[in-house]
Every structure is written in C-alpha cells, then in structure tokens.
Amino acid sequence: MVEDEVDDSEVDQWEEFPVVLQQKSMEYSIKSKRSSRARYSYGIIFLITNLIAWFVRDYGERVLPVLQYSKACGDEGSECSHTMGVLRVSLGCFIFFLVMFLTTCFTSKLYDVRNVWHSGWWILKFLMLITFAVIPFFVPSDYVQLYGEFARVGAGVFLILQLVSVIEFITWWNNYWMPDERKKQSSCSLGLFMSTVCYIASICGIVMMYVLYASKTSCILNIFFISWTAILLVVMMAVSLHSKVNRGLLSSGIMASYVVFLCWSAIRSEPATQKCSPQQQNSGHGGWTTVLGFLIGICAIVMATFSTGIDSQTFQFRKDRVQSEDDVPYKYGFFHLVFSLGAMYFAMLFISWNLDGLPRKWSIDVGWASTWVKIVNEWFAATIYLWKLILPVVRQTKVMDHEETEEELDSTSSV
C-alpha cells in the first residue's frame, strides 16, 4: 500500500514536471521581451540627452538664466553654454551610463537580480539621470575641461568599435548572399546585382565629389582626399578578387560605398569656402536644409550608438557558445559601455572636436578637426577591412610552413 502511494506521488511529480518547465519558459520569454524593449528606452534617453546638449549649446545662455546663479558657470552663465555646456551635459550622460555599466556588467542570466535593474526601476533611474545631469553644472570648469580631453579618447574608442561592428556586418551580409547548393543561381544573381549597385553608387559618388568639391586645381587637399579614396576602392576590389582571398565583389562593393560616404562626410565637414565648396559661409544658418541636416545628424548619432551597443556578439572571444533559454538577449555591460562612450562621441561632434572654439548654431561636426577625424576614420576602416581579408591567408601560409617544417624534420630524423 505504501509502495503504491510512493509510485503515485512519483507519477504526479513527472506529470507536473513539463508544466513547471513550460511556466519557466514563459517567464523567461517575458523577461527577454522586457529586456529587449528596455534598450529602446535607453535609446530614447540618449536621444533626449543629445537634444538637451544642443539646446544648452545654442540657447542655454539666453533661455536658462538660472545658470547665472551657479558659481561654476561664471559671469552670466557663459561657462555653462556653448562648448562647456555640451561637455557638462555629456558628462552627466556619461556618468549615468557608466553607473549602469558597473551595475549590470557580467549579467548573463534572466533570473539575475541585475536583469530586473536593467529592465525596470525606471522611476529611480529617471531621478538618477536628472541628478547626474544637474551635478556637472556645479562642477568647476577646469574639471569639465579635463573631461573634454578624456572625451576625445573615448570618442576615438567609440569610432573604432563602430568600425569593427560595421565591417562585421558587411562580412555577415556577404556570407548571407554567398551562393549555396540549394539556391546557388538565385543567391549568386542577387549578390552580383547588389555588388554592381554598390560599385556604381561608389563611382558616381567619386565623380560627384570631384565636380562639387574639387572642380578647381587650387583645391589640392580635396583632390587628394577623393583620389586616395578612389585608390582604396581599387585596392579593396583587387585584394578581394585575388585568387588566394577569393571573397567576391559584394563585400568590397559595400565597403567601397561606406568608404566613399566617409570621404564625402569628411569633405562636407570642412569650413565652407567659395573656392572649394558650393556652400557659402553666410548660408545655412537657419534654412530648412540646415535644420533637416542637423536633425538627421542627431538621429545618425543615436542609431550608430544603438546599433553598436546591441552588437556584443562581434566583440566576444568565444563565438561558438550556444544561447540558452535563460540567457540575456544581449550583453548589458557592453551595451551601457558603448552608450557611455557615445556620450563622449556626441560631445565631440557638437563642439567639432575643438575644446576652445565657439560652435556655430544649428551646426554639427563642422571644422577642420572634424574633417581630419573622419578622413583618418576612413583610412582606418579600409585598413581593418584589408587586414580581415588578408589575415586568413597569412594564417594558412603559416600553418602550411609549419607543417612543411615538421615533415622535413621527420624525414631528416628518419634518415
């Protein structure tokens, strides 16, 4: 009788076991969706911070008289507007995401308490954000200037992370359209079509830049920038089609379009002159094209930060790890770290990488410093891409040389 009761209890436990698993699976699914939605909330916070930085830069001295009562802001609040105002807003944003990074780093499971902190507690985090946004306006200007020097380095690190993320995406996109056995003809045709479109767009971009920004022989610097970009296009295509690399035209075509875009963006960041640019110095201060370009620039900053932040898979050392049901959908620590670096990046764009200058209203990332940063960024992007193409060949050559050396040693020892 007792044995029958024991058997019945075991049967009941086995029957309840799938129900418990299903409940846990649903719970993990809800937490994962909540975590995925949370990243959009952080993206909105970052967007609002960008808009606040712009407002403080262009209108803070006139619209926010309360800044005059802070000793750190100096006379008439001049130390809390323009360049210094952007740095103070950026500092508050940086501290907020740095705290989020420190409190969510190494979170790996959905049932971790830190997952709840990342995905919830929004009222507390909102109060924390306001506190961190206000504190920098009471910090002496010398310390804010020091943060500006540090922000240059952080913005450079952000650009490197963004480049690696973009190149990894291009590699994935190329592999996605590589011909397979089942759909060899269709995928090959689509890949060839897309590579053709990318190269046509790149060539048109080169020609248009010559016409618009290098129409006169006196524009030597622009001619050099555009010509070197064209050379990079040819080199990337040649290396990609080399028999030992054999990566096709798609990845090099997409990369060519990206490099041409970086060159165009760099030349557009030059101070407007009548001899090398169709833009006039006295135009674009309040026109709708300037406003639209400014808003697009802000959205581009947010999208670049967001896309790099959720791309933690690219920067993992072990990429063969299987995703479990209770794993977090993305790495919270890396996500917040990228946003903290993004805070430094948008500060540099708003002040055109110049800590001592006076940025123009409704402008973003304009000046010779911005131009050279983007040009170096372009060259660095091409270098990383070429290295990723050559690296497998170098590794294979080393392995073959090592095997040949071992065979020679074996043969000599046998003799």
What do these coordinates show?
The chain crosses the membrane at residues 40-57, 86-107, 119-138, 150-170, 190-214, 220-241, 248-267, 287-311, 332-355, 375-394. Pfam families: Serinc. Belongs to the TDE1 family. With 415 residues, this protein is an all-alpha fold. It has one domain. The chain has helices spanning 2-63, 82-104, 113-119, 122-134, 141-176, 184-213, 220-241, 250-268, 288-309, 332-350, 368-414. Helix 9 packs antiparallel against helix 10 (332-350).
Question: What is the total number of structural domains?
Answer: 1
What's the N-to-C terminus distance? Answer: 80 Å
Taking all Cα atoms into account, the compactness measure Rg is 27 Å
Label the overall shape: flat
Unreliable stretches (pLDDT < 50, length at least 5) are 280-286
> Helical proportion?
over 70%
